[in-house]
Amino acid sequence: LKQVFNKDKTFRPKRKFEPGTQRFELHKRAQASLNSGVDLKAAVQLPSGEDQNDWVAVHVVDFFNRINLIYGTICEFCTESTCPVMSGGPKYEYRWQDDMKYKKPTALPAPQYMNLLMDWIEVQINNEDIFPTSVGKCKE
């Protein structure tokens, strides 16, 4: 059980913010708020004087890192043989379509679906047009 809850075990390396940058400072502020037992509504409120796009970007990356951590704890138990379908219970099946390799919605084993999904998300997060690393460069 100890290895399941290992904080260092992630599906992908955690994305980090460069120390000394505005986003690093916002990330520290968000972490402090979330770990202080404060009201969640107040914790995610945009701090006065901060850029809304930068604040959202920090939380998107943090959410991605947390999902990686959660998936990292279950990925060894969810294999192509134990999880042959990506589903949300018995009523819902998720199919992958990326208009490149998978032109039509395609049923995939859960681990393969998750790998494609996490790769896709990582591409979005690393896209400078969507998540620029320079403060104040976000497109509206």
TrEMBL record:
Supply the Gene3D superfamilies for this chain. MOB kinase activator
Q: Which UniProt keywords apply?
A: Kinase, Metal-binding, Transferase, Zinc
User: Domain of life of the organism in this record?
Assistant: Eukaryota
MF term (GO), any: kinase activity
Check the record and name the Pfam families matching this protein: Mob1_phocein
UniProt: Zn(2+) binding residues: 78, 83
Q: Which InterPro entries match?
A: MOB_kinase_act_fam, MOB_kinase_act_sf
Q: What is the protein's name according to its record? A: MOB3B kinase
Instruction: Please give the organism.
Output: Alca torda
User: Quick one: which gene encodes this?
Assistant: Mob3b
